[in-house]
Each structure stands twice: as structure tokens, then as C-alpha cells.
């Protein structure tokens, strides 16, 4: 048998014992390798492995390999961090710029990434400037934040080849790993146009359905009793929004199917949590954890048996009759198929699109609605004027998209709630795809991530009087006083100092639907229910923040009863 120098094989292990030789015959001097190729057919080959194996040695080997990987990752991250720091030296740093304080910085960002005083101070003291902060949410560890209109304008005008939303948001939300590498080949997935063009054009004609689903789902979630009744508002609204959106996306009876809804509601929460948690994982672990915990992969597996027959049938019909046939459903599948390139017209891909659109729309709309309803309960003096407006407009226009557009007080109220709370502290995150010059001459290097300190802008006294005070009619007054520009201040408008929906070429394509859906849900609640905060509560329940993401207090209660 071959001898093992530097320690016996059973004691030190096959992988560590680099001086060991093959045991097939005394004359064989071959060195065994970490992964032995099958071509080496020595009789003793299997024997080496069997003889050499010991649990302790395997653990040591795995530990050594992992330590090596961590060290390599650490050195690479350090290198990339320092290279980017050098390239960004013209931009002032806020906070630490020392790589070795990373764990502390990551923790601080996680707990305080929405740092209101910092964002406000930078916005008011250094308007129209850029500063950089250390953050775990970008590949280089640096994020360049802009303040002021000019910076928004610079990002807004950039092409998607220069500044990419999908690359930046993908990294921040963990999409390449949690979405199972889908859309990795494109900077703008086709579902974006399905929402921007087809859904927006089609949903006014589906208004009756939407209203019907709101009535049924609110009654199921809120109850319809004469007595006061406490509900967990965020949970109730996630259910209402999932049902209403899916009445439009996939129609009846699926939008009321308990299993289907449960999968989507769990996904909306788990995907948001996983995306946030992923920001703090070292890059080399992301692919592995992504495969292990991907909520999207889980949802795809669970939804396959439910959605596959319906999608197969639709694909067959489209193939036989083309895109224009008399009974063609006016739903999400048709809208996606209108925009899908041939290689994306598959069952698997269509299930993925339905899931992604549920994820991007349900969570954001539920958060916006929860904020607005809690603001209404905290400021009950707005309830009667809003009821009067709703009743008047509906009397003239019926329940319709037009009626929703005419509810100016309501629009202003929901927009003010979103200005103060929103969905996050930064907006318009973009990855710089090639060196990008701002209008003041500052060059942001390729590979860097830029964003707007939107929470600072939303509270900027230059643009908003008494920005810390809730004024439900703020935007109504702006519409009335800004002659000829009254459309500018409605909620769906993309303004430089209101970035709930982002801005520029990648601004949210679902905002027309989202705002109308939210206004219809609030109108239904206000016209049919009395609402108030629970006993003892006097203000909007405290939200939770996780890094730069805003989360409403998901356990907070609202007290409701049938309108008296
Ligand atoms: C109040 C609710 C919503 C809010 C606050 C919101 C907000 C946003 C924001 C901030 C962006 C990124 C824009 C940028 O960086 O410039 C975005 C992207 C997007 N939104 Fe919305 N959104 C909402 C509802 C919806 C709805 C209802 C849909 C679809 C029906 C939708 C579909 C999308 C899509 C497809 C993108 C591109 C990102 C992607 O595909 O991952 N959104 N949204």
C-alpha cells in the first residue's frame, strides 16, 4: 500500500494530507487530488477515500475551504470598496469611510437607514448636491445620494443604458438570486410595458369588476356589524388588495380561491423580508441562500398546479387564433402576451410574471392604503368633507374611473399621507452603467449606485410649508393656486419633490391603476364604515423601518363598524 507521509490518512484526512500518494500499488507515485477524475482507475482509489475519511478531517477541510472563501471575498470587497472610494473622492462622505467598520455600518444602516435628521439636514443645508454614504445595499459598499431638483432632473433625463433601474433595484431587492436568475438577460422586462400600456388602457373598462371585488373583500375582512369591531388593518388590506388586483389580473373564480390568495399573500410578505435580509449577506453566499430560500421559487412550485391548465389553454387559443379573437379575456395573461417575445411565451415564464406583478403591486399598494386609513382615523375632521365629496362625485359620475379622477380632496389626502410616510427613504436608485456626468460637472463612475434622498426632499421646507405638519388639503391648495398647472399636483403626476413612484423612464408603470384602486377602496370604506383609532390611541401607529424601507405597523388595530 502507498505510504502516507505527514500524518496517517485516517488521522489527518485525505484532503489535507498533501504528501500522501496513491495506494493502488507500491510503484504508483500519483498524488491524489481533491476531486479525483474518474479516468484514474487504480484499484486502490476507492480504498484511499474509504481509508482516508474521518469526520474530523472533513470538518477541518470544509472549515479551511470556507475560511479561504471568506478571506477571498473580504479582500475582493476591500479592493472594490477602496477603488470606488478613490473614484468618488470629489464627493463628500457622510459618516465613516473606513472599510473595517463594515459590521457596525451595516447594523447602523439596518436600524437607521431612514435617518430622517441626516437626510433632512443634507437636503436643506446642501441642496442640489451629492454626498456618499457607506451602505450594505450596493455591490461596492457606497451609495451616492443626491438632494434637490437638479439631481432628480439629471437622473430623470438619463437613458436606461446610462443609468439602470433594474440593475440597482435588482441588487437592492436581491432579484438575481431570489427570482431564480430570471430576467438576468434584460435591462427592462416586458411585463413593464404590459403594465404601462395594456393594463393602464384596459382597466377603466374593468372598473365594475374591481368595485364588485372591493365590496366583497372589504366586507369579508372588515365585517359589517353595527357594533364596533377591532381589526388588524394591514392584514385586512393586504387581503383586500390581493383580491382586487387579482380580479383584474386573473379574474373569477381564481381571485377568491383561498389557496391561491394564501400563496400570494405569504409571498408578498416573505419576499419583502427576504429582499431586506439579503442586503446584509456577503455576495458569495447570495446565490446559495437564494436557491435555498427563494420565496418566488416556492410560490412558482405551489402555483404550478393551479395556473398551468389555464395558461396552457390560453397559449393554445392564441396560437390558433392570433392576438385578436372575439372572446379574448381582458386580463393580465392577454396583456403580458401582447408584449412577450416568442421565447417568453411559456407556462413557466407566465407564472413567474403573474407572481412578480403581484409582488410589486400588492405590498406597495397595501402600505399606501394602510398609511392613508390610519391618517384618516388620526385626523377624523377630514372624514365628513371627504364623504361629501365622494357622494357628490359618485352621484354625477357613478362608480367609475372618471369619478375617481374627480375626487380632488381624496387625491390630496392620500398624496399627503404618502409624502409624509411613503414606502422608503430613498428613491430612483440607479446603477451607473458608464461614467455619468451630472449637470454640475461631477462624474459618477461606472459601477456606482446613485439614488435620491427622497425622504429629505419630501420634508424640504423650500417646497413644502410646515413639512412636518399633516395637511390633507396641501396638494388641493397647490392645484387651485397653480393656474394652468393643476394636473401637476395630482397623485399620479411625476414631480421632482414627490417621488413615491420614482421618476424618469423607469417610474412606476402601475401608478395609474394603483392610485385609482386605492381611491376606490378608500371611498368604499369611508362611505360604508365608521372608523376610529383604538381606545387610548391619538396618533398614527408608529411604523417600523428596516434599512431604507418603510413598513407600517403590521400589528396595529383599527376600530370599525357599519356606517351609522
Ligand atoms: C401605491 C402603490 C405603488 C407604489 C408606491 C409603487 C412604487 C414603485 C416605485 C418607486 C418603482 C420604481 C420607480 C423608479 O425607481 O423610478 C416601481 C416600479 C414598478 N412598479 Fe410600482 N408601485 C405601486 C404599485 C404598482 C402596481 C399596482 C403595479 C402593477 C400593476 C406596479 C408595477 C411596477 C413595475 C412593473 C415596476 C418596475 C419594477 C419591476 O418590474 O420590478 N406598481 N413602483
From TrEMBL:
MF terms in GO: heme binding; iron ion binding; monooxygenase activity; oxidoreductase activity, acting on paired donors, with incorporation or reduction of molecular oxygen
Keyword Iron: yes
Segments traversing the membrane: 59-79, 91-111
Keywords: Heme, Iron, Membrane, Metal-binding, Oxidoreductase, Transmembrane, Transmembrane helix
Cofactor or coenzyme needed: heme
PANTHER family found in the cross-reference section: CYTOCHROME P450
Record: residues binding heme: 508
Superkingdom per UniProt: Eukaryota
Protein name: Cytochrome P450
Pfam families linked to this entry: p450
InterPro entries given in the database record: Cyt_P450 (IPR001128), Cyt_P450_E_grp-IV (IPR002403), Cyt_P450_sf (IPR036396)
Stored SUPFAM superfamilies: Cytochrome P450
Gene3D superfamilies reported in the protein's UniProt record: Cytochrome P450
Keyword Iron (UniProt): yes
Family the UniProt entry places it in: Belongs to the cytochrome P450 family.
Amino acid at each position: 500500500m502507498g505510504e502516507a507521509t505527514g500524518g496517517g490518512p485516517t488521522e489527518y484526512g485525505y484532503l489535507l494530507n498533501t504528501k500522501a500518494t496513491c495506494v493502488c500499488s507500491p510503484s504508483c507515485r500519483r498524488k491524489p487530488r481533491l476531486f479525483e477524475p474518474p479516468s484514474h482507475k487504480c484499484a486502490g482509489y476507492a480504498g484511499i477515500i474509504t481509508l482516508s475519511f474521518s469526520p474530523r478531517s472533513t470538518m477541518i477541510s470544509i472549515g479551511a475551504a470556507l475560511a479561504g472563501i471568506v478571506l477571498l471575498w473580504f479582500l475582493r470587497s476591500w479592493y472594490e470598496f477602496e477603488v470606488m472610494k478613490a473614484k468618488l473622492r470629489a464627493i463628500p462622505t457622510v459618516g465613516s469611510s473606513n472599510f473595517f467598520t463594515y459590521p457596525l455600518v451595516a447594523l447602523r444602516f439596518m436600524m437607521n437607514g431612514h435617518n430622517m435628521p441626516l437626510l433632512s439636514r443634507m437636503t436643506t443645508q446642501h441642496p442640489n448636491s451629492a454626498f456618499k454614504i457607506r451602505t450594505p445595499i450596493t455591490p461596492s459598499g457606497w451609495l451616492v445620494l443626491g438632494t434637490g431638483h437638479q439631481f432628480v432632473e439629471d437622473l430623470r433625463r438619463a437613458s436606461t443604458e446610462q443609468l439602470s433601474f433594474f440593475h440597482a433595484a435588482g441588487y437592492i431587492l436581491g432579484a438575481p438570486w431570489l427570482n431564480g436568475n430570471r430576467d438576468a438577460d434584460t435591462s427592462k422586462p416586458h411585463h413593464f410595458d404590459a403594465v404601462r400600456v395594456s393594463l393602464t388602457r384596459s382597466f377603466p373598462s374593468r372598473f365594475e369588476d374591481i368595485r364588485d371585488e372591493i365590496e366583497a373583500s372589504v366586507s369579508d375582512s372588515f365585517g359589517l356589524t353595527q357594533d364596533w369591531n377591532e381589526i388588524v388593518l394591514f392584514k385586512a388590506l393586504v387581503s383586500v388588495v390581493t383580491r382586487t388586483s387579482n380580479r383584474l389580473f386573473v379574474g373569477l373564480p381564481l381571485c377568491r380561491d383561498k389557496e391561491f390568495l394564501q400563496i400570494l399573500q405569504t409571498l408578498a410578505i416573505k419576499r419583502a423580508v427576504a429582499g431586506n435580509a439579503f442586503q446584509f449577506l456577503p455576495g458569495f453566499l447570495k446565490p446559495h441562500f437564494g436557491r435555498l430560500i427563494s420565496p418566488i421559487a416556492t410560490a412558482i412550485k405551489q402555483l404550478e398546479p393551479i395556473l398551468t391548465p389555464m395558461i396552457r389553454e390560453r397559449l393554445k387559443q392564441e396560437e390558433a387564433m392570433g392576438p385578436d379573437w372575439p372572446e379574448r379575456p381582458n386580463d393580465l395573461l392577454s396583456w403580458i402576451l401582447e408584449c412577450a417575445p416568442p421565447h417568453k411565451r411559456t407556462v413557466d415564464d407566465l407564472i413567474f410574471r403573474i407572481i412578480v406583478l403581484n409582488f410589486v403591486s400588492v405590498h406597495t399598494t397595501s402600505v399606501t392604503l394602510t398609511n392613508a386609513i390610519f391618517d384618516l382615523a388620526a385626523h377624523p375632521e377630514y372624514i365628513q368633507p371627504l364623504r361629501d365629496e365622494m357622494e357628490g362625485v359618485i352621484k354625477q359620475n357613478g362608480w367609475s374611473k372618471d369619478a375617481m379622477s374627480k375626487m380632488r380632496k381624496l387625491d390630496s389626502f392620500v398624496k399627503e399621507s404618502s409624502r409624509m410616510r411613503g414606502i422608503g427613504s430613498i428613491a430612483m436608485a440607479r446603477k451607473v452603467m458608464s461614467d455619468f456626468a451630472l449637470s454640475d460637472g461631477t462624474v459618477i463612475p461606472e459601477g456606482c449606485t446613485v439614488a435620491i434622498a427622497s425622504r429629505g426632499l419630501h420634508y424640504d421646507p423650500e417646497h413644502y410649508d410646515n413639512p412636518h405638519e399633516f395637511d390633507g388639503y396641501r396638494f388641493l391648495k397647490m392645484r387651485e393656486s397653480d393656474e394652468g398647472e393643476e394636473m401637476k399636483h395630482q397623485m399620479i403626476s411625476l414631480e421632482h419633490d414627490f417621488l413615491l413612484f420614482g421618476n424618469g423612464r423607469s417610474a412606476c408603470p402601475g401608478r395609474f391603476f394603483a392610485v385609482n384602486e386605492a381611491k376606490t377602496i378608500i371611498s368604499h370604506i369611508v362611505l360604508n364604515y365608521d372608523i376610529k383609532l383604538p381606545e387610548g390611541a391619538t396618533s398614527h401607529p408608529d411604523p417600523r423601518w428596516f434599512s431604507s424601507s418603510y413598513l407600517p405597523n403590521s400589528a396595529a388595530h383599527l376600530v370599525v363598524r357599519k356606517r351609522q
